[in-house]
Amino acid sequence: MRILKSLFLFVIAIVLVAVAAVFVIPKEKIAQAAFAKIEDATGRKITASGDVSIRLFPVLGVSISGVEMANADWSTLGPMVSAEQLNVGVKTGPLLQKRIEVSQLELIAPKLILEIASNGTGNWVFNATAPNDAVSTANNTTQSATTTPTAVPDVTLSTVTIKNGDLRFVDHAAASDYQLSALNLTLDWPTLAADVSASLSAQFNGQPISVTLASTSPMGLINGKSATVDLSADLSGSQIKYDGTVSMAPNATGSLNADIPNIPALLSLAGLSGVALPDFIGNSAKIKTDISVSENRISLPNLSVGLTKNAISASLDIALAAKATVSGSVNIGDFDMRSVGGADQSTAGSKTSASTSTGWSTAPIDVSALGALNADIALTARSLKLDALSTQAISGRITLNDSRATVTLNDVA
Predict the structure, then answer these.
(1) Would 123 disulfide with which of 32, 72, 134, 276, CB 3.0-4.6 Å?
(2) Beta-sheet pairing, 251-260 with 285-294
(3) What is the rounded distance in angstroms from the CA atom of residue 263 to the CA atom of residue 255?
(4) pLDDT tens digits for 178-216?
(5) DSSP structure string for 71-135
């Protein structure tokens, strides 16, 4: 993972500032030398417009104000990283053993931009070799082959902290632009081989979110293998939890649980404010399923969905392609589709007036999204209740092909 390797090169270079301070070398020159190493590793210009200060006690460290890392040359959004202040602290004892143990890496009020170009290239893909360097390398193959690479010291990175930051994610190909504000992050990763834990809080679309993550084998993920992950998120009051394995393939296998007490609030977080849900869905949901994800398939073998007044169980398989295909079976149990007050209309008689009955909405329904997928789903129910009629057990099939939906009923009791 290039961005991770560049982070550790960045840490090593900044640590040079603090270590060199012991020998009373002008700190501005040391900072310039450290930034040059980062630029060699990433191909991005690093600048500091503010002061560079050194501390020797209780922890050897350096603070740099006004730090910026340039963005990819194709970007027009400004620096990839800018921060009011960068604080780095290292433990002095391990330095004598040629080990770098970073006790603190802290970014104060950073602005981070993650960006995907229209051709799919991310701005976190660094190019450490300039075009002219490539020609020079080709002309000096023999000399390069005989050069002994410099050993990189063992690095221990204890805690990374972001305070009051902003993160912007822009995907030019998808024409999407998302922003997190009031971002606070704590990452504990003592060594590359150690377990990792992280916690994040931020504001998204004016709503609070928080995420916690723990992984017992992150290096496996970085090296293309699988890693165990325990991920929990609080999205505007909705609790979502995943426990399982993931890999960069991408693959994921585990269990997924969601407790959504306020569906409209979650939709608002996703930018869908003012959505009116039908009565049979209600405003809350509890979801539980095992899940398996691969590059071209998602399987939900034992999905259960508890709505406000209905419950659904399903086994679904989603084939991912230009047009996704959903197949499987759905059991809706005793499904109540009556509108508010609908259950009382049969006994209310003439006392129920048209002005007080809510009934079904007469607003047009946009079903254009159905063109994005095909489906073949077996449907069963123990009973079905509508405002005008009720049935006992039913079974049938729902198919969707090129925006054309077909419902076939096999049995209706």
Answers:
(1) 72
(2) antiparallel
(3) 21
(4) 999 999 999 998 777 788 999 999 999 889 999 999 998
(5) --TT--S--SEEEEEEEEEE-HHHHTTTEEEEEEEEEES-EEEEEE-TTS-BTT----S-HHHHH
Q: How far apart, in whole angstroms, are the C-alpha atoms of residue 59 and residue 90?
A: 6
Which among 135-144, 226-235, 366-375 has the top mean pLDDT?
Answer: 226-235
For 135, phi then psi, to 5°, come to: -65, -45
Those residues with Cβ within 8 angstroms of residue 267's Cβ, 6 or more apart along the chain or in another chain: 273, 275
- Of the candidates 257, 376, 242, 260, the residue with the CA atom closest to the CA atom of residue 316: 376
Q: Distance (Å, rounded) from C-alpha 91 to C-alpha 98?
A: 11
Instruction: Dump strand ranges (E) for 205-339.
Output: 207-215, 226-235, 238-247, 251-260, 285-294, 297-307, 311-319, 324-331, 334-336
Q: What's phi and psi for 406, nearest 5 deg?
A: -130, 130
Which pTM value belongs to this model?
A: 0.74
In this prediction, residue 131 carries a pLDDT of 38
